[in-house]
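Protocol step 4 of 6: record predicted structures for both targets in the notebook before any analysis. Target 1:
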Amino acid sequence: MEDGEGRMSDLIITSKQIGKSLKEDIAILTEPSLLEALETQLRKEARTRGEEVAAGKLAKDAVMAACGETILKYHPELTEKLSRGGRGHRDGFHEIERETGRSDDTIARWVEMLKKIKIAGGFAEYFALHAPDIIARWERSLLKGDLKLFNPEIAEGPEPQLYVGFAESLYFLSDESIDIIITSPPYNLGAEKWPMGGATDPFDPLTEGREERKNGIGYVDVRPEKDYQDWQIECLKELYRVAKDGASFFYNHKIRQNQGKIIHPIDWLRSSPWIIRQEIIWDRGSTHNHCAQLFWPIDERIYWLTKGKPRLPDKPIGFPTIWRIFGPVPNTWHPAPFSNDIPKRCLDALGWPGAVILDPFGGSMTTCYVAQKMGYQSIGVDSNEEFIRQAIKTHGWRNKINE
């Protein structure tokens, strides 16, 4: 692209009426109309199909850098600290998080992108530096026929649709509207204490093998077992309704222990309309609820369920049936968050451009976050409105909760 094209992107950004407050400026810079105008202009000036594809990805980089530059305009005291990099440079982000309502991860990506573009010498130089790599990946993926591996235009999908609701009553979703479901329901572990866990009082047989739960999880998690299983079957039937023919459903649960006997998820899955295609063992590598009288339960199950014959990718799935993914998620506000790698692996295996993803027990909305980063439209549902609001803040989303 010509040198003037870089200046054109700067002109589009600076022509926005900014200068009122950091919060308002960031809102203006991140509004969809700016990105659309920038992509349109860059594609118009592109000389080849390859550069036109690259323009979509690099336009997003330009907006990120503009946000980073705006932050430094309001907080020049961070300039020296940010130039040093490293995890410690986020120490000054707390005030910015309050002002903008965006997470420190989002802010860090903005200022890091500004730094990269400045190092390159400007946006035109940055484009010239990175476009060849994007074009090369595009060409390789065309040969493989797998566009989702490269396509910068779906490098980040739309923000998810978020609902306060219950998995057994998704009245706001149409029949056969969902392609892939990825979720982990509550395990019915008890409201106050884990049924398995380190003894809180080794001299009291009533508490042996139990551990106080510090926080709730947003759901009533203590039910008579029959009621719990009937509820899960009800949820599975409702999810079957909203799933398209050929849909895949990844259902994460664990084998629980009660009165010396195991309770296995397969007990109620066989009573649902879903086909159980495969059982995946998730090796978490850690457990928070072990008992000295039992082998440590570091495994959970992920069931690949399908509605009829599943829609399969042309390429091999390429993953084994044992997934070694470290389970605990550090420094998180949610008491039972998903690892990012779980939904990512599911979508790497079976996703395709245009697929609609649903997590009906959204919690921290990890599935929706990963789906967006991979270019998918997603829907997140949870009964706890506060969890959804915290997820919006954590992931830097601008959307509102649907009524």
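Target 2:
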Amino acid sequence: MYGAIRTYRVTDVGELTTAVRDEFIPLVRDIPGFVAYYVVDSGGGTVSSITICEDQAGIDASTARAKDWVQERLSSLIESGPEIKTGEIVADHARVGATT
């Protein structure tokens, strides 16, 4: 599996979260090999998204869609970023039945 972490500073975490739930997740969940997507609110206007895919091609597709969507939809909310880190997941564990 592979992952991407994208970190941004934003002016309105609530507005970003709503847009991600309503608009962005539907854009990425159909990517072949897509496994999961999360957004972490680190406080102080800093948010990170975490995308998990079965292969690097899925991560690349997700990153491309994120870039286009953020530019088109959220540019007014972005103060800085994204800082992007991608790579192979080398250790993992998931609780069975976990919900968000």
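Step 5 preliminary note on target 2. The chain has two helices and four strands. Residues 36 and 98 are 12 Å apart (CA to CA).
Proceed to step 6 after PI sign-off.
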